[in-house]
Write a structure and sequence with these properties.
The chain is an all-beta fold. The chain is 0% helix and 55% strand.
Length: 114
């Protein structure tokens, strides 16, 4: 059974930082492409960052230079380090694991507010 579990969300002030974690089990993690998406209230779910099994990284323009995606295959974990957060970053952040099929976590809420 595949499980994708995010953690690390919470309330942070504008300009602050937060690190999200995602652990995936039941798949060959090292062979999986890992993605972070986010969905703000009333909006579509948008791709934020991707890290392939080979370590190639892509970022959405909206967060480029503020967010960093990384992975550790030994820990079956991918992280999203977020810097200089602003209220527009408020959303539910979802982890997506792709290995033939696509698997989603339940999401973690990030709220940027003073």
């Amino acid at each position: 059974q595949v499980q994708v579990v995010e953690s690390g969300g919470g309330l942070v002030q504008p300009g602050g930082s937060l690190r999200l974690s995602c652990t995936a089990s039941g798949i060959i993690f090292s062979s999986s492409e890992m993605r972070w998406y986010r969905q703000a209230p009333g909006k579509q779910r948008d791709l934020v960052a991707t890290i392939t099994s080979a370590g190639t990284i892509h970022y959405a323009d909206a967060i480029k230079s503020r967010f960093t995606i990384s992975r550790d295959n030994a820990q079956n974990t991918v992280w999203l380090q977020m810097f200089r957060l602003n209220p527009e970053d408020t959303a539910v952040y979802y982890c997506n694991a792709i290995q033939i099929y696509s698997y989603w976590g339940q999401g973690t809420q990030v709220t940027v507010s003073s």
